[in-house]
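Worked example (supplementary).
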Amino acid sequence: MTDAPMPVSSAHLTRDVESGGSLPFWAVFKRELRLYFRSPVAYAIAFAVLFFLALLFNSYLVTSVRNQLPANSTYMPNLLTFLMFLIAPLLTMRLLAEESREGTLEVLMTLPMGDWQYVLGKFLAAWTYFTILLAFTLVFHLVNMQVGVPDMGATFGSYVGAWLYGGGVIAVCMIWTALTEDQIVAAFLSAATVLILYLADQGATALSTNANLSVLGNILRELSLTAHYNDSMAQGIFRLHDVLYFAFLIIGALFITTRIVESRRWRA
Amino acid sequence: MIEVQNLTKRYGENAAIRGVSFVARPGQVTGFLGPNGAGKTTTMRILTGFMPPSDGKATVAGYDVFEQSMEVRKRVGYLPENVPLYRDMTARDYLMYIAEIRGVRNRRARADEVLARVGLSSRADSRIRTLSKGMKQRVGLAQALVHNPPVLILDEPTIGLDPIQVLELRDVVRDLGHDHTVLFSTHILSEAEQVCDNVIIINQGEIVAEGSPAALRGQLERGGRIITRVSGDLNKALSVMRAVSGVADAELGMDGIVATPAPGADPRGAIAQALVGAGIGLVELRPLAINLEEIFLELTRQETHEPEPEAITETSDEEMSS
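After joint prediction of all chains, the assembly is encoded as:
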């Protein structure tokens, strides 16, 4: 087909376009979140995760009722945090790698906003999507309440913890999607990084058996995701330093991501 | 207004641009002309605040591109090479998105306004992936216009378009030049000649010539090679021409005799007289460079062959100041 002719008029545009309004990151956030709900991948992730959790919940329910175990609502958020090494890379791999490959990042980087704005907007969109996924698992808690009396404190703690855990892991995955243009590479490296942070706890335990390396083991343990979730919040134990760990993880990872995107200005 | 002084961008050992200085005035289309890899995109990326220069200074709309990057970005509309767009968005949604980041109010009205300006109102709700290449280019241009910036930087906007789309886009750019400062890069020389009020020729990271298309042509006519077509004995004509004072050399070219004038001389009249005097039929006598395409080849030829490559640039500077 042929294009409609472009009118060549000397009609001047309105000289002053009023400006002001909301912060740029909010616009980026809204666009990215909308994209999740239009993307078949996001629905596939949600379906697979919830279906898998539902199967496990079913067998858990059967055993716990048969053996008359106390109802435990921390089971589902705990499982979800374990699955984050699969979920987070899939949610984040597109975010910056695609923009960088398509060249749209160059447009974003010449708009009047700091680089942290779109990094933050994209991160918040992924975290919000995760939050919605986490909220869906509350259905299992409702079922639990029908068959028993789950510990509400533990449930609350494990949910808040899983939410922070998700934010931290997503932020870490942002680093890889900023570093590479290849989504698959970003996803693999993200998954590997999250698994390392998850298993660091085991390594720490191994190191601690050797008296000379126990300090190193303790440092490693403090860095691991597991030490700040599974041992505390997952059981409803609230410790300030666990919350701080996730807060620093999010802020630190986003800071690194911003720096990586910024470095394109010097390397490009 | 864009003012560039001694701009240099180095990548390790290599410099993408070296000591580039020029001025792009409001109400004019300034053409940035050069072969691929000459440093056009690098210069534009510095001017849009995408990356910092290694050395030198540039101001856009009165703000320093490095010190006051945000102020510059607010006032620049940028269409990058290859026109990156979000292919799954509709044209209007895309423009509203960019407008929202830019803090433009009444975004929907504004998006529709710029779509009308680039002649795409009928496709406002089409996803960008379904648009033709020419339409995508116009969406990119609309993106650059959405905040109504005083300065427009367009990196090879006509690349990959069909001839009709190219003509349409050139019309729009020329029209935008009336009320904007437009910096427009291209490697197609006839395009610069048609669209631009002022042309800057850049090669291997350095400016080799600057001026209006007409001035550049005039300057080359004075110092550039002359092609002569004759009827009759070619060898005789060749020896006659070599004898003319002001002709440094003459040789048989593809479609005539090509004479290289001595520095600063214009031997065209003398050549015509000598040839006619010797009884040789003069069919045609003209400067070899009649359009920017040839001016460009002439300039790069002089760069490589002449001991003083600065000669042409200096002449052009004198013309500019006079």
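Two points are worth noting when inspecting this output. The mean pLDDT of chain A is 87. The interface with chain B takes residues 1-22, 24, 27-28, 31, 35, 38, 102-113, 265-266, 268 of chain A (CB under 8 Å).
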